[in-house]
């Protein structure tokens, strides 16, 4: 895989600010980030409903994740205090669709410790 400049992307510890893919992976790789985006995919949610759907994610962690996603331009907070995906967040969701489809197929074929216990 080559970048637009023709150079092979670095696989080392490059500065994420200079590597968009690394910056993206660092952002969405943080615990709860993808889950927030997943929960907001169908539409707007208020903090309490989002918190309820997030299971054991603490309120302070959710608040922090929401702030980071707003700064990244992936979600917005509406005047009615609901959160929703921005165009960029929706675009990321579309890009992740193939990963979600793959994960469904993979989960049907993989043997995990949880499956072994049953």
Detailed description of the structure:
With 118 residues, this protein is mainly α. The protein has a single domain (22-108), classed as Orthogonal Bundle (Arc Repressor Mutant, subunit A). It has helices at 20-28, 33-40, 47-53, 59-71, 87-109, 113-117, and strands at 45-46, 75-77, 82-85. It has a 3-stranded antiparallel β-sheet.
Radius of gyration: 17 Å
Strand content: 5-15%
Please give the order of strands in the largest beta sheet: 1-3-2
What's the CATH superfamily, by name? Winged helix-like DNA-binding domain superfamily/Winged helix DNA-binding domain
| Fraction in helix | 55-70%
Order of helices and strands: HHEHHEEHH
**Average of per-residue pLDDT values:** 85
Give me the secondary-structure category.
mainly alpha
Unreliably modeled segments: none
| Overall geometric form | globular
Give the number of helices: 6
CATH architecture level-2 label = Orthogonal Bundle
Largest sheet, in brief, is: 3 strands, antiparallel
What oligomeric state is this? single chain
